[in-house]
Structure formats: structure tokens, C-alpha cells
Amino acid sequence: MEKKNNLKTLTAVLNQYYQDNDRQKLNQLTQLLQNDMIKNPNDPFMRHYYLMSLSTLYHLDFLVASIDDQNELIDYFFNISYWQFYDLCLLENVVNMIHVERSTPYISDILKQYATNNMPMASVETVSKILINALETSIIQRKDDFTRYLLDKVKKYKFNTDDFKFQTWLLFWTGVFENNNNKIRHAYSIATYLHQNITLKNFDKFLTITQTPSPFFEDTKKDTPKS
């Protein structure tokens, strides 16, 4: 229980610092967690907490981790036979700094687990965040095959169809991937109607950082889906 509470507290703090774009606090937290990791070299959780903080810091600039760090995480995920809350939270918070093709088998495994088991709601919410982050990462890394694969998998498993926030994000990423301004505008409209201010802020952040032309001006993008 303590491990789960620590994880929830850490992820909440990391998310807040990310939303605030607070590099100073993220750097300080990453350094603090690195010191704790050095003091506890045999504690894998300390190492994971450090990597989660590092990944959040990297997320601000869409950077990927070193090959050694990626290999370490992939080795951990490879040995998971049944995805539990801790494992899901770890993947949620580091997926953006891993080359997306390397996460393919694990995301597929998680979706199969979702389809064949009664996942606790907390786990379903975490899986939603994994998928949102993985779609963003695949689009940033320009891995069209993975993006298409993930969108097809979500559709196949009818993932979380009742979650309006997830479905809004899904619509946004689909619109970005397909260069479809209508879908992007629709996602903005839904988020506005549902008062999802953080979601709107993140939409804006993504479009700004990637220098994507505004979807609210006609002819800035072709509304033509990718083949």
C-alpha cells in the first residue's frame, strides 16, 4: 500500500510540474531522486522513480532516453506476465522517452488483458494515459505505422468507449495524424463543452511546440486522411 501511495503522490507531482512547464522544480526533483537512488542501489523502486522524473523532464522537449536506460526499462517490462497498477504507472510515465516500436508488444499485451479481464477502474484510467502518451510519442517520432497500429488496436478492443476525456484525446490524435482539421476542431469543441481546461492547455502546448498551423484557420492543413 505504501508503494502505491508513493507512486500516486509522485505521479501527481510530476504531472503538475509538467503542466506548469516548471523545469526548475523538475530538475530539482530529478536530482533528489537520483541521490535517493544512489543511496539505495538495491531498491529498484528508487531507480524507477528517478527514471519517471527524468522522463517527465525529457517530455518537455520530446527527448528520448539513452539506449542503456531504454534497455533497462524494456528488460523490466519483458518480464511482466500480468500487468498490475505499479507496472502500468511506470509505463505511463516513461513511454514518451522510449522508441515507440519497442513498446509495441507491451501495449498490445495490456490491451489484451483489458479485453479478457475485469480491470479495476484505476488501472483502466492509467491505461488510457499510456495510450494517449504513446500516440503523442509515435506522432512526434513520426512512426506512422505504430500510430496506425495503435489506433486500430484501440478500435478493435473498443477501449474505454464511455470515457469522454479519453475519446476526446483519441479524436485529437486521430485528427493530428490524419492532418484533419475538422477532427481537431471537434476535439477542441468537446473539451471546451466539458470544461476540460487542462486538456485544452495540452492541445495548445502540443500544437505550439510542434509548430503545427492552427486548425482554426482554413487551408492551413489539408483535411485528407493518411492512406
Tag the structure with descriptive keywords:
single chain, 227 residues, mainly alpha, globular
Describe the protein's architecture and organization.
It is a single chain. The chain is an all-alpha fold and 227 residues long. Helices cover 70% and strands 0% of the residues. It has eleven helices and no strands. The termini are far apart.
Brief overview, please?
This protein has 227 residues and is mostly helical. It has helices at 2-19, 23-39, 44-59, 67-78, 85-94, 104-116, 121-140, 144-156, 164-178, 181-193, 197-209. 70% of the residues lie in helices and 0% in strands.
CA-based shape? globular
Q: What percent strand?
A: under 5%
Radius of gyration: 18 Å
Order of helices and strands: HHHHHHHHHHH
Give me the number of helical elements: 11
Strand pairing plus helix content: what structural class?
A: mainly alpha
How is the secondary structure organized here?
Layout: H1 2-19, H2 23-39, H3 44-59, H4 67-78, H5 85-94, H6 104-116, H7 121-140, H8 144-156, H9 164-178, H10 181-193, H11 197-209
